[in-house]
Amino acid sequence: MTELEKIKQEEAPSGGMSREQFMQMAGSNYSEEDKKILCHNNIRKIRTAKERFLQENIDQLNEIEEITNEHLAPYIRGGFTSLICQSGGEYTIGEKEQKPQCSSHGTL
What we know:
By secondary structure, this protein is mainly alpha-helical. The chain has one domain. It is built from four helices and two strands; from the N terminus they run H-H-H-H-E-E. Strand 1 and strand 2 form a beta hairpin.
């Protein structure tokens, strides 16, 4: 299995390098399709974290004006800031009922 395949399956790369370090280093070597796949994987992580946050805080939803990356960080391995779009896109969490998206690759 190649390092990119491991990353796509969320396995840590070999050599003591973190997944994020590997992605930053190898980012320029990814095809546009690979970058889109990795980005959509990050959007799935954001969506899952958002769903978990909303479920666990259902009794406080009226008090929560905006869901922030700090709210979702505990639900994402490495925290929200570890999610990097290799095409330079920015992730938007969206309102409670909206889907997360990337400025480069859109939403799922």
